[in-house]
Design goal:
single chain; mainly alpha
Amino acid sequence: NIVDFQLLGVAEVVANLTKLGETIKEGTDAAVLQAATLIQEEVKESIAGNRAETRSVDTGNFLNSIDVSKVQDAEYEVFTSVEYAGVLEYGSTTRMPRSHFTNTVNRNQAKVKEIIEEAVNKEINS
């Protein structure tokens, strides 16, 4: 005896899962950009002296140089292009470190995680 059966709708299920995966990927990318923008703004606030670190604003070049760039999907970097940023971040023999980037990331880890989790959950549940 041979039993014959067909599974109907498999192609549709696969297509829907693929679409959901793309939606989650796009939502996650947007959330990571949102988190990177948050870090960018918080680093600027730190540089301006509005956070715990010592203010690092003189001409405004450092403050205005903080930018965000996409590395790949769901990966962004917050960076500066000024050559003296390392001295401000890590200090030197004559200057104490101000750690604007390091401290900002440490202060905002929970918020970044919350932004990304919220986006993923929203996509999964919609």
